[in-house]
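Now for today's protein:

——
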Amino acid sequence: MEKTIITAAVTGSRPTREMNPAVPYTPKEIAQSAVECYRAGAAIAHIHVRDPETGKPDFKIELFREVMDRIRQECDMIVNLTTSGLHLSGPNLIERRLQPVALRSEICSLDLGSINFRDAAFVNSPEWGKTAAERMREYGVKPEIEAFDVGHIYQALDWIEEDLIDDPPYFQLCMGVRWGIEATPENLLFMKSKLPPNARWSVLGVGRAQLSMITLGILLGGNIRVGFEDNIYLQKGVLAKSNAQLVEMAVNLVGLLQRETATPDEAREILGIDH
């Protein structure tokens, strides 16, 4: 089996300091948290940005640039910038969502297919998916296809067939997001069974599903994601002190299951990212 790639999703857009005081808000805090995760064993940092004053979700290109520059000054970690734009509204949404791609991070998230979350509709039109795939190819950015349900995989298969996504395709299976696919072993096996044979894949589990989903992901030969975007607890009733603490947990789990973690360069090789 290939080595296990660990992604650290260090802030997301939902957790707040009221939920866990360790959630990073400023570009400096987000970058520092990512670097700590790298030192703990993560190969990829998945980046959202926040308003540095309020901590609310933000999408300013200068914030993304500062976080990426700070990470690159400290280590060779792979940077994965979000293009979700869940909290954006108004005109020119596709172009505004695609701003991070121009920074040429090695990976950007690519959400295909729409879904209702508890408090918002996450709309990803066919026009968005095609435009985003084409733009990422133009800038030499690897798409991380986020799948919240099986239909999202089916849409990705169409784009792959149309040669809009380069080999090997890379999927992030997002398990347990209400009202996406439930985080159960049966569902993860089902989602994995629908992937193309040459796909690279990772799995995340939201909240208390994190541990079970990453454990099964490791056993199935996949890659895993941890971090405050998905879960702010180390164990039931115990808040994680940092993102790095969650990465340390994941590294220990990989070792207990008799596998090895991938370095950033090894992750680039596995995912087909040019050095």
